[in-house]
């Protein structure tokens, strides 16, 4: 084949390919623009939200049948559940980080009538930090004597950038009481929670929480677990 004929051949092949229409897959086809969102590091209590985009690149309507999550801490709402061929939509997902600490991955399951990918997964991942830490994180006591009050101290440290205000401590059982060394906790500072435990005569153990409502913080409150074993006097 001469040079001229080769040039003509490749030119004809280029024209043929360029005029062939793009064939879309038959039926509905779901395509996720970016199935993963990394939110980095946030304080516990932050409401992390992200909008995922998806499209129907098929030839018939795409129907979003249901949305499920790996955790009740996550909610999602699609902007549309019925997409014509070529249409796009969004799904807004929100993760409530209040109960978590450390690395987290939350999965959103999107069910559709796409025969090839009936379930697609979206991911929200990142690291949860504590704005306020407790030292110790739990008050554990042994050999308690009924009606004798035991005192323990817990330090609260503010690792955030905002000043936090604390309200009067509450408790989940009458055997517990608490007081604060202050009501304001500036960034980088600490204060002391004094926990008083007074076991009752007819109980074998103490099990409850000291709850401190907060304002100016990501969390609405902090909880200090308290557990104690009661030593009963020997029977005569």
Model description:
The protein has 236 residues and is mostly beta strands. It folds into 2 domains: 23-129, Immunoglobulin-like, CATH 2.60.40.10; 132-230, Immunoglobulin-like, CATH 2.60.40.10. It has one helix at 3-19, and strands at 30-32, 36-43, 47-56, 62-69, 74-78, 82-83, 88-96, 102-112, 119-129, 132-135, 139-144, 150-158, 164-166, 170-171, 176-180, 184-185, 190-197, 205-215, 221-230. Strands 11, 13, 14, 16, 18 and 19 form a 6-stranded mixed beta sheet that branches. It has a 5-stranded mixed beta sheet with strand order 2-9-8-4-6, with no helix packed on it. Strands 1-3-7-5 form a 4-stranded antiparallel beta sheet, with no helix packed on it. β8 and β9 form a beta hairpin. The longest helix is centred in the N-terminal third of the chain and has 17 residues, at 3-19. The chain starts with a helix and ends in a 6-residue tail after the last strand. The relative contact order is 0.15.
What's the short version?
This protein is mainly beta and 236 residues long.
Major sheet size, sense and barrel closure:
6 strands, mixed
- Which range does the strand content fall in? over 45%
Low-confidence stretches: 7-11, 13-22
Number of strands: 19
Secondary-structure element order, as H and E? Answer: HEEEEEEEEEEEEEEEEEEE
Assembly of the depicted chains: single chain
Rg from Cα: 30 Å
Roughly how many Å apart are the termini?
Answer: 116 Å
List the SSEs and their pairings:
Blueprint: H1 3-19, E1 30-32, E2 36-43, E3 47-56, E4 62-69, E5 74-78, E6 82-83, E7 88-96, E8 102-112, E9 119-129, E10 132-135, E11 139-144, E12 150-158, E13 164-166, E14 170-171, E15 176-180, E16 184-185, E17 190-197, E18 205-215, E19 221-230
Parallel strand pairs: 2-9, 11-19
Antiparallel strand pairs: 1-3, 3-7, 4-6, 4-8, 5-7, 8-9, 10-12, 12-17, 13-16, 13-18, 14-18, 15-17, 18-19
